[in-house]
Specification:
Blueprint lengths: L2 H17 L7 H25 L8 H25 L11 H42 L27 H17 L4 H29 L1 H4 L11
């Protein structure tokens, strides 16, 4: 459901410059397009097709809303990068330091996202291994339907401090993207605001769910998403 975002953005990058009479986009425009694409190739293709042991069902309304957001976001960011934002190398003059800082922030968030996503996957992989061993011990064939859901509290990395570190890392990632684009890159700023507005309530609701399921004692001093704050 996240594939349309980078597909639309790449279409904009290829189609709009010619319509606007732009012969060649600056390298930084393509850099930002590449970062956006890398994130969503991982999120929309690599993770669900090759890494995730199982997938939870998605409500149709959530699916439609996510698709609509991806299209709109792809058009906004793609349009800005393809012809309605900086269009010459001179437009990026004096921003090398900002681009470097933004890249560091982006990849710190991206790598943190990969790490904490894999910690969550490991719970399901471990559950699958345990179920397989039990089935083999009982002389039964493993069910083709998938893995029974198992709920645990991860304890590695930032999971020691918060329950949703992968949300935090994604925010860091897109803040780095915004830093590269600069303060006037309104689509990147709006993207960050949207991420905060949609994911923060999910994290807070998720913490309440963890407390109801595991108890306050088990959760301890862990915050929902920002260490020491929220």
């Amino acid at each position: 459901m996240e594939t349309p975002g980078f597909v639309v953005l790449l279409y904009c990058m290829l189609a709009i410059p010619g319509q606007q009479g732009i012969e060649k986009l600056p390298p930084t425009n393509w850099l930002m397009a590449a970062l956006f694409t890398i994130h969503y190739i991982y999120r929309a293709l690599i993770a669900p097709l090759f890494l995730n042991p199982s997938m939870s069902p998605i409500h149709p309304f959530v699916l439609i809303s996510a698709l609509a957001f991806q299209v709109v976001n792809g058009v906004c960011i793609g349009g800005y990068l393809a012809g309605y934002g900086p269009t010459t190398v001179q437009d990026w003059a004096g921003t090398a330091w900002r681009i470097e800082v933004g890249l560091v922030i982006f990849f710190l968030g991206f790598l943190g996202n990969l790490y904490h996503d894999d910690e969550l996957r490991e719970i399901r992989r471990a559950s699958a291994r345990n179920q397989r061993r039990r089935a083999e011990a009982q002389g039964e064939e493993r069910k083709a339907a998938g893995v029974d859901k198992v709920y645990m509290i991860p304890e590695n990395g930032l999971f020691r401090l918060v329950l949703y570190p992968h949300y935090l890392c994604e925010w860091i990632e897109w803040c780095g993207f915004w830093v590269i684009g600069g303060w006037r890159c309104i689509p990147a700023r709006n993207f960050v605001i949207n991420e905060l507005a949609t994911m923060l309530p999910r994290a807070l609701n998720g913490k309440r769910w963890y407390i109801e399921r595991f108890g306050k004692e088990k959760i301890g001093s862990k915050k929902a998403v920002i260490p020491g704050l929220i």
